[in-house]
């Protein structure tokens, strides 16, 4: 079995090199070529999570609400970049908008753990210095991406977790909230549905064998909505950030890929900036965000080629999800192996693309 993986990766490499696809079918052709061929002064791309997002399950109102929030968020980052601000500020402020919306599985809309709490994870990375910050398992910090940023800028550490992270957040003057701030009925209903399905399969809810949420195709698709952003600023600096509530029904202080530098987030001015979303256990094992950068760095692959290879590796291992990324030349890629991924891009001409479904 072990010998199959490198062989499979070679196959993926051949496949990926031959099989370039367009980022977003809704983008006009001339916009795509502009994104790819001319080096823009700056660029920004975001995601609001990947998963079983099917048009048939979407009402026009819901679709419009997601598109409006994606546009609101990316325009905030666009303005920062247009005014000469840093990619780090663009990423932080863009993610703040999505964290404050109940639509996404981050901040206000975070999913519930098995114990009916909300435990939030986030990370950010600076492509110029390779400095990074992350927080895991917080329950009272309103905007976890601000905490990740503070860890990067104001501490000697890269990742803080739980109570200690919350004490640090308070010391830094970040906005703290009651844990109930993160309670939304929609996410509580999702948890109940997941637990019901779990009970049907195991006969009882509270059993030690219950990582079914990670292994059952229906249940795992109950999650999606993690948010992320990758940006290139006018100074050529790349940054990426990711913020999430994790996966519905997670237990035992489970931490996913989102706060893991190299898995959920990576940025390097020499290559690209990447934010991931998907089944975290697999994204950690595949080291998704760093692997994309490494394939560009060591093998000279394009961002698109590298992204496809790494997501094929995730799929080969049994996981699913997607990434958004921008390279040092401003090429933007949104790649996913799920039915959909909430996403949007803006370039320095102010051209906006928004996508939800695969086609
Ligand atoms: N990657 C996140 C996690 O595993 C979940 C998601 O992206 O939806 O925690």
Put the structure in a nutshell:
Helix content is 39%, strand content 21%.
How would you characterize this protein structure?
- With 359 residues, the chain is of the alpha+beta class.
- It has two domains: 4-35, no CATH class; 43-357, 4-Layer Sandwich (Glutamine Phosphoribosylpyrophosphate, subunit 1, domain 1).
- The protein has twelve helices and twelve strands.
- It has helices spanning 4-18, 29-37, 60-82, 87-99, 144-154, 162-171, 185-202, 212-215, 217-220, 280-285, 288-299, 303-317; strands at 43-51, 120-126, 132-138, 159-161, 227-232, 238-244, 265-267, 272-278, 321-327, 332-336, 340-347, 352-357.
- An eight-stranded mixed beta sheet has the order 4-3-2-6-5-1-11-12. The chain has a four-stranded antiparallel beta sheet with strand order 7-8-9-10.
- Helix 1 runs antiparallel to helix 12 and helix 11 crosses helix 12 (303-317).
- The longest helix has 23 residues, at 60-82.
- The radius of gyration is 19 Å and the shape is globular.
- 54% of the residues are buried.
- It binds aspartic acid.
- Aspartic acid is lined by residues 49, 105, 223-224, 226, 244, 246-247, 256-258, 277-278, 280, 283.
Features:
single chain, alpha+beta, Glutamine Phosphoribosylpyrophosphate, subunit 1, domain 1, 39% helix, globular, disordered N terminus, binds aspartic acid
């Amino acid at each position: 079995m072990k010998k199959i993986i490198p062989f499979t990766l070679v196959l993926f490499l051949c496949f990926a090199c031959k099989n370039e696809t367009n980022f977003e079918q809704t983008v006009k052709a001339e916009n795509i070529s502009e994104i790819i061929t001319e080096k823009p002064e700056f660029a920004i791309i975001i995601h609001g999570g990947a998963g079983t997002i099917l048009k048939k399950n979407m009402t026009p109102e819901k679709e419009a609400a997601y598109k409006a929030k994606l546009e609101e968020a990316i325009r905030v980052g666009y303005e920062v970049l247009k005014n000469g601000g840093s990619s780090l500020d663009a990423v932080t402020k863009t993610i703040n908008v999505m964290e404050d919306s109940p639509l996404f599985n981050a901040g206000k809309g975070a999913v519930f753990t098995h114990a009916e709490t909300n435990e939030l994870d986030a990370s950010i990375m600076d492509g110029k210095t390779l400095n990074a910050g992350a927080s895991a398992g917080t329950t009272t910090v309103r905007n976890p991406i601000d905490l990740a940023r503070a860890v990067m800028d104001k501490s000697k550490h890269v990742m803080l977790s739980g109570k200690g992270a919350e004490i640090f957040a308070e010391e830094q003057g970040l906005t703290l909230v009651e844990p109930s701030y993160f309670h939304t009925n929609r996410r509580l209903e999702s948890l109940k549905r997941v637990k019901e399905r779990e009970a049907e399969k195991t006969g009882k809810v509270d059993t030690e064998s219950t990582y079914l949420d990670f292994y059952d195709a229906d249940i795992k698709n109950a999650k999606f909505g993690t948010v992320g952003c990758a940006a290139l600023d006018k100074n050529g600096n790349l940054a990426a950030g990711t913020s999430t509530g994790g996966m519905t029904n997670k237990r035992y202080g489970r931490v996913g890929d989102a706060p893991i530098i190299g898995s959920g987030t990576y940025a390097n001015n020499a290559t690209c900036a990447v934010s991931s979303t998907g089944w975290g256990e697999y994204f950690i094992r595949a080291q998704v965000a760093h692997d994309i950068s490494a394939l560009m760095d060591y093998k000279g692959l394009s961002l698109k080629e590298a992204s496809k290879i790494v997501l094929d590796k995730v799929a080969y291992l049994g996981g699913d999800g997607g990434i958004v990324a921008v390279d040092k030349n401003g090429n933007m890629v949104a790649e996913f192996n799920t039915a959909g991924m909430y996403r949007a891009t803006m370039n320095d001409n102010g051209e906006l693309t928004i996508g939800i479904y695969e086609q």
